[in-house]
Design goal:
The chain has helices at about 10-20, 35-50, 75-85, 105-120, 155-170, 205-210, 215-220, 225-230, 240-255, 275-290, 310-325, 340-345, 355-370, 385-390, 445-450, 460-465, 475-485, and strands at about 1-5, 25-30, 60-65, 85-90, 125-130, 140-145, 175-185, 185, 235, 240, 260-265, 270, 335, 405-410, 415-420, 430, 440-445, 470. The longest helix is centred in the first third of the chain and has 17 residues, at about 105-120. Helix 1 crosses helix 9 (about 240-255), helix 4 (about 105-120) runs parallel beside helix 5 and helix 10 (about 275-290) crosses helix 13 (about 355-370). The chain has 17 helices and 18 strands. The strands form 5 sheets. It has a 7-stranded parallel β-sheet with strand order 3-2-1-4-5-7-11, sandwiched between helices. A 5-stranded mixed β-sheet has the order 16-15-14-17-18. Strands 6-13 form a two-stranded parallel sheet. The two termini are about 30 Å apart. The chain is globular. The protein is about 35% helix and about 15% strand. Among the domains are: about 1-185, 3-Layer(aba) Sandwich (Rossmann fold); about 385-485, 2-Layer Sandwich (Nonspecific Lipid-transfer Protein, Chain A), CATH 3.30.1050. By secondary structure, the chain is an alpha/beta fold.
Length: about 500
């Protein structure tokens, strides 16, 4: 059976896609102005392929929107999910702190209700929900995994919306079971610093960059933005690296009991805000080089006022307070998070410690990537299995496991998984699925291109080990017949 994942293009979602790439995963992503959903997921996995040096399986992609009833899915998609999917991992969310254009309520509360409605309509019995450790609001002391709404005050609308959404999950009677995951503040990769989002932890670093474009370096480093945010520096923040959150979440998913449990994914060693400030200063100084009096200034000595301060500094401070007041609640002192349930299941997967070298790596990555701007663009594909197989319309009756067909699994860019079948009139159909077929063929995009372009034959591909057969391999004649009869097309994407 399949697992449906929402939020696949977010930071955590991109790691979940990577870590689940060995299985067919129907994936729902939002439409984009820059690329269609399948191409966005393809880009995520291409990044990991380049890093790992191996070809990865593409999930099944269903275009949807969590703010729409039944996630905006077509009826055929809902029917497909009813036949093939038994678990939904809901990771999509809005991180908006203050209500704006209906967010975060539209995505976090209405979106979660739409997910629950889909579970009912598609008869998906198990829901895994990514909440947040900050459902605790402004509470102090120790926060138990079993607690949710105990009358606490909240620091922002994001926290309120996540409590409301988690309440919907807990009250859903049509689910056989649910699992709630509560990560704290997710930062970049603990080994590489990689991230695709630059809010929260990265905000003070961006402020430092903005300061350096307006005032002298020494003034920027002496700018006490912690005091302007009402902080002393002793506040603790609970950071967890995204690679660990994904690994821990999926380990709990596979090991933990399906018994309405909540798991806190937090660090036992929070980081003091004052330590972060010193680290930010160290990174900025290191990138600017040694200063010699005023010669280290970004803007020159002519901007110095009579008191030796850059005249724009006080004005910047005023604007800073106005623009970042929303982060006052974010940078408050964190409570202690109980992780009893988590420790019972994944005591062997401890959270990596956020040391100074790790913090510096996270900062350096953010600066070197210019905080994610401009976003990387993929080169157009020479060949796409997805486009090539579009010439065979999906069968309305195919379930992905019909005995008269076979599964075709194509790894690499432009790949995916399909169930190939033939109707009574001899027409070929390529439908989403294939993982449950009695006969399955697995190959990468390059090998498929070689086959359909005539650069190699089925016999040649088999002799070269370019095709892996699984299941009832004695029926492999079906595959040979398919590649012998299928029209040869270039499958160019045009993107």
């Amino acid at each position: 059976m399949y697992r449906l994942l929402t939020g696949a293009t977010g930071l955590l979602g991109s790691y979940l896609v990577r870590d689940l790439a060995a299985a067919e995963i129907p994936t729902i992503v939002r439409p984009s102005r820059f690329a269609d959903p399948a191409s966005r997921v393809d880009a995520i996995l291409t990044h990991w392929e380049d890093e790992w040096g191996r070809s990865l399986l593409r999930p099944i992609v269903m275009e949807g929107d969590i703010t729409q009833p039944l996630l905006g899915l077509e009826r055929t998609d809902v029917n497909w999910l009813r036949r093939n999917c038994n678990r939904l991992l809901h990771s999509a969310a809005s991180l908006t702190f203050e209500e704006k254009n209906g967010e975060p309520w539209r995505s976090n509360v209405d979106g979660t209700q739409h997910v629950l409605d889909l579970c009912g309509e598609a008869q998906i019995p198990y829901l895994e929900y990514v909440s947040t450790a900050y459902t605790c609001g402004l509470r102090n002391g120790t926060i138990l995994e079993s607690e949710l709404d105990v009358g606490q005050d909240f620091g922002n609308d994001y926290e309120r919306s996540k409590v409301a959404a988690e309440g919907l999950v807990r009250d859903a009677r049509h689910l056989s079971a649910y699992t709630v995951f509560r990560p704290s503040i997710i930062v970049g990769d603990s080994r590489t610093g990689y991230t695709t989002t630059f809010h929260g932890f990265y905000t003070p670093l961006r402020v430092a960059g903005a300061l350096l474009s307006a005032v002298r370096l020494e003034d920027a480093l002496n700018f006490d933005y912690l005091a302007l945010l009402g902080m002393s520096g002793s506040e603790r923040k609970n950071f967890v690296p995204v690679d660990w959150v994904s690994r821990a979440l999926l380990a709990i998913s596979s090991r933990g009991p399906l018994a309405n449990q909540t798991y806190a994914l937090t660090s036992p060693a929070p980081v003091e805000v004052g330590r972060l400030r010193r680290l930010f200063e160290q990174v900025v100084r290191g990138r600017q080089g040694p200063m010699e009096g005023q010669s280290g200034s970004r803007v020159g000595t002519d901007l110095a006022g009579g008191n030796g301060r850059s005249p724009g500094l006080d004005a910047f401070g005023t604007r800073f307070v106005e623009q970042f007041a929303v982060y006052r609640s974010y940078w408050r002192d964190d409570p202690d998070f109980d992780t009893s349930n988590t420790q019972r299941v994944i005591a062997d997967i401890p959270c990596p410690q956020i040391t100074d070298p790790v913090l510096q790596m996270l900062c350096e990555y953010a600066i070197e990537s210019n905080f994610g701007f401009p976003p990387p663009r993929l080169e157009p594909l020479e060949f796409s299995a997805r486009d090539w197989l579009a010439q065979f319309p999906a069968s309305q009756s195919a379930s992905g496991s019909d005995a008269d067909g076979f599964g075709l699994v194509v790894t690499g860019r432009g790949g995916g998984s399909w169930h190939i079948s033939e109707d009574g009139d001899g027409n070929l159909h390529a439908s989403p699925g294939g993982a449950q077929a009695r006969l399955r063929a697995r190959l990468n995009s390059e090998s498929l291109f070689a086959l359909v372009s005539g650069r190699t034959t089925w016999e040649g591909a088999m002799a070269q080990g370019r095709v892996l057969l699984m299941g009832q391999v004695e029926e492999a004649g079906r595959l040979e017949a398919f590649f012998g009869a299928a029209p040869i097309g270039k499958g160019r994407t045009g993107r």
